[in-house]
Specification:
Elements: H1 9-32, H2 41-72, H3 77-84, E1 90-93, E2 99-102, H4 104-109, H5 126-138, E3 142-148, E4 154-163, E5 171-178, H6 180-215, H7 222-255, E6 262-265, H8 266-283, E7 287-291, E8 298-301, H9 303-321, E9 326-332, E10 341-348, H10 370-373, H11 382-392, E11 396-402, E12 406-414
Bound molecules: adenosine-5'-triphosphate and magnesium ion.
Adenosine-5'-triphosphate (ATP) binds near residues 245, 353, 366, 367 and 381.
Length: about 425
């Protein structure tokens, strides 16, 4: 909060006379005590005039500064107090767009915003400038969006409200409402639809191409027909699995905030996943190690969803880490340091994942090293689904990988 120098002002006003009088007394005293040689009276008078002039000028300057700060401080303490209790950043400017006050939230967000500086030193957005101009011109509240790209990309809705209680007491209050989260969700939704359409269109385009070929040039070519039908079948399967994944993802999202309620025996669950995977394991000529504790481990969860998690992880281990010859699925009771989590780990000893891809693997449609994975079927939704399910179970997901050594995915589930 700013303090007013009003009480000090009369002293400052009186100072030229005080300083002048003090100077005269000083010279008289010095002369009287004989510390200085009896001075030429002209010099004494000149000294007095000079000291008085300097003091007067200093006083005038401080007075002018006071007036300037008065113009800056054209708002009431009540306004300051009110803006202080707002949780959103609030910047108050005068009609020349000079910052006259900022509340603590604004100070925290824009630590370099100084009162007395033009607002443009802090915010230079053209839309905001336009909104301010318009607010001052029309005397009505304006709104605009503000995009601040650095250091952390932030989006604000700015409300620009002019206030004119009296001639020189007018100000404009700019309040910023952060809606970055919503902007991000919107963008993600947009990206998601674009990606999903693209992923569906690719096999569809290829299907249509084959249909045309079969109806036209290859109509009577038996060999080509059976080969093309094979490809068409696999493209349709790809579309179908993509749709399954999309539905699964949207179902999980719908239930994201509903706590699971049933008891799930994890030993049984893992055994069942292993059985389901047998054909794939055999086809890839792999060994599957299933490591289960003696005692039954149960948690409260959604059986089908947890099944999907382990199946997805094991599918990845077989698909991308199959070169290692072995895949391990393990259940560890009371795994975390505090002992209040059980862990499920899926480990492979294959090619591993380059470090830069690891943090992005759970993004929808992210497929790591696209070039290397082109030959392997996948939609890039598997780990996104895993992440959602684990979150719904209040669990933790971690992926550790080393190029050439393999990948280990760990899921911690609360007991
Ligand atoms: N065990 C692993 N070893 C190496 N790379 C992996 C492993 N698991 C996942 N990845 C990489 O992560 C990417 C994303 O995996 P995710 O399971 O989300 O999608 P996908 O397997 O491509 O498709 P989907 O699971 O929907 O069939 C994969 O494309 C692959 O590049
Ligand atoms: Mg996968």
């Amino acid at each position: 909060m700013k303090t007013r120098p009003a009480a000090v002002r009369p002293i400052v006003m009186a100072s030229p006379f005080l300083v002048g009088a003090a100077a005269i007394l000083l010279v008289m005293a010095l002369a009287a005590f004989g510390r200085v040689a009896p001075l030429d009276s002209g010099v004494v008078i000149l000294a007095i005039v000079a000291i008085t002039a300097i003091a007067t000028r200093a006083s005038r300057q401080s007075d002018a500064a006071d007036k300037a700060s008065d113009a800056l401080a054209g708002i009431d303490t009540a306004v300051e107090q009110f803006s202080d209790i707002l949780t959103e950043p609030c910047l108050i400017i005068n009609e020349r767009a000079v910052l006259i006050y900022r509340n603590p939230a604004a100070l925290k967000r824009f630590p370099r915003a100084k009162t007395g500086d033009p607002l443009a030193f802090t915010l230079r957005d053209p839309d905001l400038v336009e909104a301010i101009d318009k607010a001052i011109e029309t005397g009505t509240a304006q709104g605009t969006e503000l995009h601040i790209p650095v250091p952390n990309e932030t989006w604000y809705r700015a409300s620009v409200v002019p206030y004119r209680p009296g001639e020189d007491r007018s100000f404009v209050a700019i309040t910023l409402y952060d809606f970055t989260e919503q902007k991000r969700t919107d963008r993600m939704r947009g990206d998601f639809i674009a990606n999903a359409s693209h992923e569906l269109r690719t096999p569809l385009t290829s299907l249509m191409g084959f249909i045309d070929t079969l109806q036209g040039p290859a109509a009577k070519d038996e060999a080509a027909r059976s080969r093309f039908l094979g490809i068409m079948r696999s493209q349709s399967e790809r579309m179908s699995s993509l749709i399954d994944d999309l539905l699964s993802l949207s179902r999980i999202e719908l239930r994201q905030h509903v706590k699971p309620t049933t008891e799930v025996n994890l030993n049984l669950l893992l055994r069942e996943v292993a059985e389901t995977l047998e054909p794939k394991i055999e086809a890839a000529e792999l060994v599957l190690d299933l490591k289960l504790p003696e005692e039954p481990v149960t948690i409260i969860g959604d059986r089908q969803e947890l099944f999907e998690v382990v199946e997805n992880l094991a599918d990845n281990a077989i698909k991308y880490g199959g070169d290692g010859g072995r895949v391990e699925i393990a259940l560890i009771a009371s795994a975390s340091r505090s002992g209040d989590h059980h862990a499920i780990t899926v480990t492979d000893f294959g090619a591993g994942i380059a470090e830069e891809h690891v943090p992005r693997l759970t993004e929808r449609f992210y497929r790591g090293d696209a070039e290397a994975n082109r030959k392997k079927k996948g939609t890039g939704l598997g780990l996104a689904i895993v992440k959602h399910i684990v979150a719904r179970h209040h669990g933790l997901l971690s992926i550790r990988s080393k190029l050439g050594e393999g990948t280990r995915v760990e899921i911690l589930l609360p007991r």
